[in-house]
């Protein structure tokens, strides 16, 4: 018997590659501790979990009052190289690149690993694989099987669903190489997909449900993969779709014809009768009435035929969860019980609400902030510890964190923490905020110009922004340095300091501004912000054309500008980059003062208001955008308004269809010289086509003028057209084709294409 005995010695035998001391550190059983059969069993399990051992045995020897434990192991070899055999269609280099691993110790460095990648999820995934599968150590069975799985996935993407992958470890000089033996078999691909028997839904609607794709030479999809298992899953999706749309007796089957490696796929459908939605009852709702819960969801469904649709039931359930979460009942549970009447072809539904109790946050936990400090995220939260979990607070918190611009995605998830408590998990996915960028930018004012910039958002994880930018083109130069201290002095205000040297070449003159500025802004209510600042700059007008007007020639020379600026804004947009709901309102006032050497004297006021409305009536996916801009600028002290402080109406950012400034005041030569008054109205209707690709139609109208009496609606200029918006990882891109409503002799073309890299609406 060994009960009560201590372990006098632990001996490791059979290990060729894993060090004795490393194995002993993994053991619960220690020399000098009490012997326990249960601890030995745990030791065996723990050693197997490492994946470094093929075989483990433990022997015990009783020596007087002590026990000697002998661990006999068969460990796996150190892998220094990975090779592929049998791969003809995908060469070694492509395989290792798509796997994201090194195939020889030290062969693949991090710079090579990251080349060509800009989004953090892709980089993080490749870095994680590289960290996990570095060579020069033991590769576990689990890691080898992971590589086998990835090789199969790569071949499946290339149209080889039947690929076989086996592995062999070949010893060599004390270390080993891992050889993957690959049998590719025949390539299988889809030629065409034929759908038969579908009377209610189009072929395109059903094909959108499928992961199996047919050949399309216009988008260079020449040999899309044929995988029968994937096709079977597609059939299940289509059948579920039909049943969710009320076709409870729908039947879907598939077959295919084979032509060498190509396959014609046939989807056969029997729709059957379509069931209607009968009585819908709601039980257990003590805090909201039936009408408050249902809203207009049933009326919408009735307009579409009144059929039984799972989407309708899920919308009502989601509305219940949303309503209850607005008052802190985050743990409300909702279930539905359908009752099918096969004779009358209808479905009655009972929705049961289990209200639960109000939920308070116990702790806030943050995950995914590898760079950002916790407090940067916590200070944006509108749901804090010990407060009610309210949906509006969660939604606003997410918008505020996203609008910092440092994160690709933000999710806020309440989850039970035991004892009736609830924790709030904030999961973020960081984007690269520190980068050196080289590229091109274009709009009609600056034309094509190149830029190089070093920008560090979220500087040192504090949320601050640091940037140096160099931009050069034939018509544009912008060199600047800026720093924004977020939450200056620990309060909800931002301090921005900048110095700049800008030069823009216009048609008849060139203007250069050199100077610096500081701005202090503060959030004083939710959604509201006030700002004030001061700028000092030297302005030089040069290269005045011989045919320029007297007004433009009068601008020649240098002047000093000292400006005070004030602004008041309210921002409720859900996402600053491409909003779908909310509004943005801003009032700006600027005054140039004759102090500290300043020579300019004018007042300038600009009001901007925009509204974003998504279609919730038909749930069509359309987003309507409306924007109004009013502005005026007036001199004082017997001076003129500087040329580039006037309003140039017409062009990419004001009234599309016109060249820059051509919807405003013109000189005797027909060249734009800016206006002292502006009124601009913009309307857009956008539709999301795919992920970050949007289609839009628009109408712009308004005018730039020097006198109020000129703003007779019959004088207003207008432009209408269509375009696309594409949000790239680098910058938004907008292309619009606009037609004028009124042609003018100085800008006679009936339409114009506007191309902008940068801002949108």
Structure in a nutshell:
With 761 residues, this protein is an alpha+beta fold.
Model description:
With 761 residues, the chain is an alpha+beta fold. It folds into 6 domains: 6-75, Ubiquitin-like (UB roll) (Roll); 78-183, membrane protein fhac (Ubiquitin-like (UB roll), Roll), CATH 3.10.20; 189-270, Roll (Ubiquitin-like (UB roll)); 276-354, Ubiquitin-like (UB roll); 361-430, Ubiquitin-like (UB roll), CATH 3.10.20; 529-757, Beta Barrel (Porin), CATH 2.40.160. Helix content is 17%, strand content 44%. It is built from 14 helices and 32 strands. The strands form 6 sheets. A 16-stranded antiparallel sheet has the order 17-18-19-20-21-22-23-24-25-26-27-28-29-30-31-32, with no helix packed on it. A 4-stranded mixed sheet has the order 5-4-7-6, with helices on one face. The chain has a 3-stranded mixed sheet with strand order 1-3-2. A hairpin with a 2-residue loop joins strand 2 and strand 3 (66-75). The protein is globular, with a radius of gyration of 34 Å. The protein starts with 5 loop residues before the first strand and ends with a strand.
């Amino acid at each position: 018997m060994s009960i009560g005995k201590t372990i006098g010695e632990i001996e490791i035998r059979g290990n060729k590659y894993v060090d004795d001391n490393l194995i002993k550190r993994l053991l619960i059983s220690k020399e000098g501790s009490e012997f326990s059969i249960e601890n030995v069993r745990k030791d065996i399990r723990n050693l197997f979990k490492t994946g470094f051992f093929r075989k483990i045995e433990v022997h015990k020897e009783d020596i007087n009052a002590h026990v000697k434990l002998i661990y006999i192991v068969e460990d796996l070899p150190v892998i220094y190289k990975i090779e592929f055999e049998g791969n003809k269609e995908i060469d070694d280099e492509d395989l290792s690149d798509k796997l994201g691993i090194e195939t020889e110790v030290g062969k693949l460095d991090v710079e090579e690993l990251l080349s060509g990648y800009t989004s953090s999820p892709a980089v993080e995934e490749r870095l994680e694989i590289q960290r996990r599968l570095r060579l020069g150590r033991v590769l576990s069975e689990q890691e080898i099987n992971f590589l086998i799985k990835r090789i199969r996935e790569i071949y499946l993407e290339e149209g080889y669903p039947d690929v076989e992958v086996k592995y062999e470890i070949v010893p060599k000089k004390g270390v080993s190489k891992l050889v993957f033996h690959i049998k590719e078999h025949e390539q299988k691909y889809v030629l065409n997909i034929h759908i038969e028997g579908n009377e209610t839904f189009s072929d395109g609607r059903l094909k959108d449900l499928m992961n199996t794709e047919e050949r399309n030479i216009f988008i260079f999809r020449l040999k899309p993969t044929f995988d029968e298992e994937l096709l079977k899953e597609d059939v299940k999706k289509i059948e579920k779709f039909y049943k969710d749309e009320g076709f409870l007796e729908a039947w879907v089957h598939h077959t295919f014809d084979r032509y060498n490696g190509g396959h014609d796929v046939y989807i056969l459908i029997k729709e059957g009768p379509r069931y209607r939605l009968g009585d819908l009852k709601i039980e257990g709702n003590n805090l909201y009435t039936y009408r408050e819960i249902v809203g207009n969801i049933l009326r919408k469904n009735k307009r579409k035929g009144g059929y039984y649709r799972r989407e309708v039931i899920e919308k009502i359930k989601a509305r219940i969860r949303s309503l209850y979460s607005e008052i802190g009942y985050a743990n409300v549970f909702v279930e539905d019980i359908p009752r099918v009447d096969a004779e009358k072809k209808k479905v009655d539904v009972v929705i049961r609400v289990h209200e639960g109790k109000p939920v308070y946050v116990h702790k806030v936990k943050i995950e995914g902030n590898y760079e950002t400090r916790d407090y940067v995220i916590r200070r944006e939260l509108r749901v804090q510890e010990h407060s009610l979990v309210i949906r509006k607070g969660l939604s606003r918190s997410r918008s505020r964190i996203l609008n910092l611009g440092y994160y690709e995605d933000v999710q806020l998830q309440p989850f039970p923490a035991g004892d009736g408590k609830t924790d709030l998990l904030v999961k973020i996915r960081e984007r690269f905020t520190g980068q050196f960028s080289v590229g091109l930018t274009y709009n009609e004012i600056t034309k094509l110009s190149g830029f190089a910039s070093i920008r560090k958002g979220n500087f040192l994880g504090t949320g601050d922004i640091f940037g140096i930018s160099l931009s050069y083109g034939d018509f544009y130069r912008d060199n600047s340095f800026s720093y924004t201290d977020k939450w200056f002095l620990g309060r909800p205000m931002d301090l921005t300091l900048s110095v700049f040297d800008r030069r823009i070449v216009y048609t008849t003159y060139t203007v250069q501004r050199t100077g610096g500025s500081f701005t202090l802004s503060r959030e004083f209510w939710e959604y509201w912000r006030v700002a004030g600042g001061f700028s000092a700059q030297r302005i030089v007008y040069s290269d005045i054309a011989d045919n320029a007007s007297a007004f433009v020639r009068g601008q020649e020379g240098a002047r000093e500008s000292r400006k005070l600026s004030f602004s008041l804004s309210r921002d409720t947009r859900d996402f600053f980059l491409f909003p779908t709901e909310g509004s943005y309102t801003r009032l700006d006032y600027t005054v140039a003062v004759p102090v500290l050497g300043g020579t300019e004297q004018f007042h300038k006021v600009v009001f901007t208001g925009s509204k974003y409305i998504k279609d919730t009536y038909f749930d069509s996916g359309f987003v309507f955008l409306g924007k109004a801009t009013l502005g005026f600028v007036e001199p004082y002290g017997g001076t003129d308004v500087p040329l580039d402080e006037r309003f140039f109406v017409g062009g990419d950012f004001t009234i599309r269809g016109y060249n820059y400034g051509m919807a405003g005041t013109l000189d005797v030569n027909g060249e734009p010289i800016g206006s002292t008054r502006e009124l601009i109205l913009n309307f857009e209707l956008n539709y999301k086509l795919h992920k970050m690709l949007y289609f839009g139609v628009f109408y712009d109208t308004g005018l730039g003028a020097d006198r109020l009496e000129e703003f007779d609606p019959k004088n207003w200029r207008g432009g209408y057209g269509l375009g696309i918006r594409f949000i790239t990882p680098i910058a938004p891109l907008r292309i619009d084709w606009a037609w004028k409503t009124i042609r003018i002799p100085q800008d006679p073309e009936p339409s114009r294409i506007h191309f902008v890299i940068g801002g949108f609406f």
